[in-house]
Amino acid sequence: MYFCGPTVYARAHIGNARPFVLGMWLRSWLRLTGYEAILVHNITDINDKIYDAAPGASAALAADATRWYLEDTGDLGLGMPDHLPKATETVPEIVAFIGELIETGHAYESGGDVYFRVASFPEYGRLSGQRPDQVEAQEEPSPLKEDPRDFALWKANKPATEDTWWDSPWGRGRPGWHIECSVMAELLLGPAFEIHGGGLDLVFPHHENEVAQSRSVGRPFARIWMHNGMLRSTGDDMHKSIGNIETIREALERWGREPLLVFFLSGHWRKPIDYSDDTVRQAAAQWSSFQDAYRVPEATPDGNEWSRFAAALDDDFNTPEALALLHEWRSRGYWDLLDRGLAVFGLGLGERPLADDDIDRLRQERDEARDRKDWQRADELREAIRGRGFDVVDEPAGSRLVRL
Ligand SMILES: [Zn+2]
Q1: Which end of the chain, N or C, is surrounded by fewer C-beta atoms within 10 Å?
Q2: Are residues 30 and 152 both part of a single domain?
Q3: Rg (CA), the chain
Q4: How far does residue 178's CA lie from ligand 1's centre (Å)?
């Protein structure tokens, strides 16, 4: 799987967490069901936004913002993708790929830039549902282009505003954004791979251009596209300081990771999801109810409950349905199943409360340790008993438990 990653120029918005979380959960589920899943998530550390945000110090900002992204997504507690390739570390491979596109007539050099020749790829527009002759023009108009639909693969260095550059057969410059994903996906996953993810806002032009670059030179590229719905900020109560947009870091500090994960579970990945104090508060309340799961006496399920959970996730990764089932298990006291289901999403019930019988077993073990004069083990067991709210009193007739 290849899930497009962030452009690193500031702390990432909570909306950027959605494709990350989806990719990590999907990997977790696919592995559990027996697939050898590998997730690649790229870091776009060459981009106009970075030059604009830190004139004269873009590389330092990109390095800082990469570190922030890894810290912030790391604190979601889902682990990390298998590969996190950076554009700055892939420039030679990008230059080679652009060279192949020029040789095969799919790209042309013009004034130190290199552009993809959209007219050379008849399938162009198919991914985003546009007719090739009616595809909207790419964002940057330029007299250097043969056709307004053409897009840059390589951009000549602009010394006044761009403080990083790389050498290439077309002169000093830097790669465009789209080409980096075609190259990194192939480098790490081969010419064909299963799933390509990213936000719905990336379908055009980013993913349309990735397809054009890779397929025009015979690579099958992604078999399945998985575009997640966007996160919508609603309500007036969002933080105003950063223009009604909350960062992953701020969201983690305000809510903690578990309520945020339950929030993401509550929406189907294809659909937009409303992010507000109200909706995250509801998710936090759901999380509290899971934390109270042990208050419901433990029960044994009859029938194959896990298959219901698997059916929900195997059907287009329907997490809202899986979440509803987790609540059902919680209300019925299916502790083991619930813990196992939550673990797919990086959540869990934590340590089980010990029944009185279990504490008494610890007392007996301590007696046995004392009998064989293993004082260290006896002390450890006493600490374990104290940790459960009891203490041991040694009397001539034997030991007994007292509440602390
Ligand atoms: Zn991409």
Answers
A1: C
A2: yes
A3: 27
A4: 6
